[in-house]
Amino acid sequence: MSETLINRLADLDSCAVSDALDQLHLKGVAIGLQNVSHSKRIVGKAVTVQLGLADGTLSKRHLCTEAVDASGAGDVIVIAHENRKNIAGWGGILSQGAVMNGIEGVIIDGACRDVDESRELKLPIYAKAAIPITARGRIVQKYWNEPITVCGIHVEPGDYVIADASGVVFIPKSIADRVIQLAENIVRKEKIMAELVQQGYKMVEVMGASYEEILVNTEGDND
Ligand SMILES: O=C([O-])CC(=O)C(=O)O
Ligand SMILES: [Mg+2]
User: Fold this and answer.
1) Which of 117, 72, 70 has the alpha carbon at shortest distance from 92?
2) Fewest C-beta in 10 Å: which of 90, 106, 113, 175?
3) With contact defined as beta carbons under 8 Å apart, do 102 and 72 qualify?
4) How far apart are the CA of 117 and the centre of ligand 1, in A?
């Protein structure tokens, strides 16, 4: 079941999923995140990590290590770094571990570092910024595999995520089937429109009132 949903999600893009969530009046787009590393669309299930400020005592292990060790293909590491752009919450050795385990990519609502290394490793990272400053002694992991908030979006472990050049969208696992179905309907309609454009139809005809109505029109299309 979930495998199928992931495969179907992989055939979509962030815009179609955002439109589907719009249709349901739900928020899922993590505003302010961009690909800073290897440019590739990723889909998968969230493995969550919550970071926070260090309290002066030394950490037993570096942040995100358990999440990386426990994850593999089909998983995306999603890190709540609380919008910090002045300290990196992810780095190159972690990227090496992620690639070794086949992890799809990383999403962090703050800064990361060792970006050149991650690019060489071809690991997609969606972040708010890049900065050389280490987390060591400054930032610690508070917990992992629990609900977190990323750019104002509530994310639970196992929620679905799609990230591409347009941005990052989270889909609650409880409604993933419905959202993906709606997004597929939207993609189908947009393909027809693109074909009409290729056939020489005027833009004002192709993107007329029926385009503006797409977001209220696809819910019933479950063929
Ligand atoms: O020290 C850090 O912030 C982590 C780091 O560079 C790495 O994983 O390579
Ligand atoms: Mg490093």
Assistant:
1) 117
2) 175
3) yes
4) 11
Compute CA 65 distance to the chain's CA centroid, rounded to the nearest angstrom. 20
Domains of the chain: residue spans and CATH? 27-171 (3.50.30.40), 178-217 (no CATH)
Burial class (CB in 10 A: 0-12, 13-18, 19+), 85: middle
**pLDDT tens per residue, range 81-106:** 999 999 999 999 999 999 999 999 99
Residue 220 burial class via C-beta count within 10 angstroms: exposed 0-12, middle 13-18, buried 19 and up:
exposed
159-178 residues labelled b (16+ CB within 10 A) or e (exposed): bbbbbbebbbbbbbbebbee
Residue 62's contacts (CB-CB under 8 Å, 6 or more residues apart) are: 94, 135, 136
Q: Is the ipTM of this complex over 0.85?
A: yes
Residue 114 assigned ligand-binding role: yes
pTM reported for the whole predicted model: 0.94
Proximal ligand: closest to the CA of 110: 1
**Ligand 2 geometric centre to CA of 117 (Å):** 9
* Ligand 1 contacts CB of residue 88 (under 6 A): yes
Question: What burial class does residue 222 get, using C-beta atoms within 10 Å of its C-beta: 0-12 exposed, 13-18 middle, 19+ buried?
Answer: exposed
